[in-house]
Each structure stands twice: as C-alpha cells, then as structure tokens.
C-alpha cells in the first residue's frame, strides 16, 4: 500500500464565487477572492491498497455514500489515471468544525484530499496542479491550497474540460493584522447544498444576470482595495458582494440565513456606526464571518458574545495553504 496525510484550512470569500459555467469541468462563472482561515481545519488520509475489495470513503467517522462518495472518487479517479494507478483506495477525512453547514468544509476537505491523493500516488505535482484538481470537485477548494489572500479567476466561456484553472495567492498571511470571527449560528447541515443553490439561482432568479454582470466589477475593485491595503474599502466591497450574491439566491427561493444571521449583521452595522472598522460576510449558509483589525478585536468580540442563541464564536486569522502531514510511503 501507499498513503499520505494532508491538512487544509477552509477559506471565506471576500468577493463571492456563485455560479458555474455550463458544461463539464466545474468552472466558475465569476472570479473570486478569499482569505484562507487558520483556526479551522480538515485532515485527510489517502491510502492506495491492493488488498481492498472496493473503494472506501469515510467522512467524520461515517462511511460516505451517494453524491459525496461520487465527488471524492471522481477526484481519486483523475489521480489514478495520471499515475497509472489501479489499486483501490481508502479516503478518511475529518473536520474539526461543522460539516456541510456553510463553513467551507468542502473547500478544506477537497484541498486536503487532492494533496494527499497526489502525494500517495507519487505524483510530483505543483500547488497549481493540485489546486486545479481540487477545483474540479469544489470550486472553493482551489483557493484553500494556497496561503493568505487567494484569487480564483473565472473560466472563459466555452472552456474545454481539460483546461487547467488554478487559484493563486495575491497577498501574504500578514498583509493585515486581521482577525476573523466565525460566528456559528447552528450545528445543523444546511438544507440546500452550494452546488444546488448556485444552479437554482442561475436557473430561476430574475437577478441572476445582474449578479453575473456585477460580480466581476466588484471583484476588480476589491482586488485594487486589497493591494492598496485600504481596509475600509475592502470591507465595503466585500459586503456588497455577499449581499448581491444572497439577493440573487433569495429571489430564486434559496435562503440560507436564519434569525441569528440577521441579528449578527445588525450588530456589525452598529459597531461600525460607533467607529469600529469592522465588516461581515456570509457564504452559502447561516453563519456570519466578521472581519476586524487587531486594534478593534476586544470590542467586537464582546459585542458578538452578547448575541443570544449564538452557538459559538471561532477566532481565526489568515492561514497557510494545504500541507502534507506525513510523507508518502
């Protein structure tokens, strides 16, 4: 047998990836910019073993079936083809945070599985090739392969399935003294997974065309603000991006928020009105990510802790990309 273990962190998008190009390849229709988050992680061990009677996928202690298993094995099959590998595989993955609830567990999950699988198969792949592999199973996973602030460009219209589209790091971990409070509003899985939510939005929302047109403009302005280290402008544009994304989704009947989501957004606005440099973002789930510089950390944390019904607050900072925890053997 041969195996490798890797770890990756989830990420939170500042400019949102919401919408896929038609056709195969799992290509994003709009560009996105994210920050990789230390403080939450996924570990994945991939083992190729000729003694296994069939492929096995275990996620958080449960044997995976259905679509989850299929997505993992599509990634594995791509590795097997590249390495001329015909052994069965065991994939064991574990998150230290809620799964399938809007905390980007698929990003860290597929980034760690992609790196572990390529390493176990003895493929000497660059981070960009691993990023492209991860993207084919989860668009946001392409970004979790890299450190700090990471961009994933949109695919050109009519992109061929074999086009290599990888993310890239655009600013280091220490670009700002940033603190990200991940406000967990529920431990339950979300009712609509991200892929279904994207497809339903593009198919049914009267605002989908507006979103696809506006998202690249917001992204371009946000990239400029990031490079200029303009924290206030970065926050304003990030909030514009998540609000536009969710507006288009809600108009298609895809609603991820709950009452605590709304209360937290109100708390962030009140803090900002009181002089704190703080902004929020919400991915495809009910949880709120709150961004603040170290100077305002204690004030913001105190306000968040006062919100009734909040499950917990995870304090995170910009983190490193996917890494091997064990050398392939």
Q: How does this model look, in words?
A:
By secondary structure, the chain is an alpha+beta fold. The protein has two domains: 2-174, Ribosomal Protein S5, domain 2, CATH 3.30.230.10; 178-318, Alpha-Beta Plaits (2-Layer Sandwich). It contains nine helices and 14 strands. It has helices spanning 66-83, 105-120, 127-135, 141-144, 194-204, 208-227, 231-250, 259-273, 297-305, and strands at 2-8, 11-15, 32-38, 42-49, 56-59, 62-63, 88-95, 149-152, 168-171, 178-184, 278-281, 288-293, 312-318, 323-326. Strands 2, 3, 8, 9, 10, 11, 12 and 13 form an eight-stranded antiparallel beta sheet that branches. Strand 11 and strand 12 (288-293) form a beta hairpin. Helix 2 (105-120) crosses helix 3 and helix 6 (208-227) packs antiparallel against helix 7 (231-250). The longest helix has 20 residues, at 208-227. The protein is globular and about 60 Å long.
The portion of residues assigned to helices is 25-40%
User: What is the typical, i.e. mean, pLDDT?
Assistant: 95
Structural class by secondary-structure content: alpha+beta
**Strand percentage, roughly?**
15-25%
Q: How many extended strands?
A: 14
Query: What is the CATH topology classification name of the largest domain?
Result: Ribosomal Protein S5, domain 2
Query: What characterizes the major β-sheet?
Result: 8 strands, antiparallel
Number of helices: 9
Rg from Cα: 19 Å
Low-confidence stretches: none
- Total number of domains: 2
The ordered string of helix (H) and strand (E) elements is EEEEEEHEHHHEEEHHHHEEHEE
CATH class of the largest domain: Alpha Beta
How many angstroms separate the termini? 8 Å
Oligomer designation:
single chain
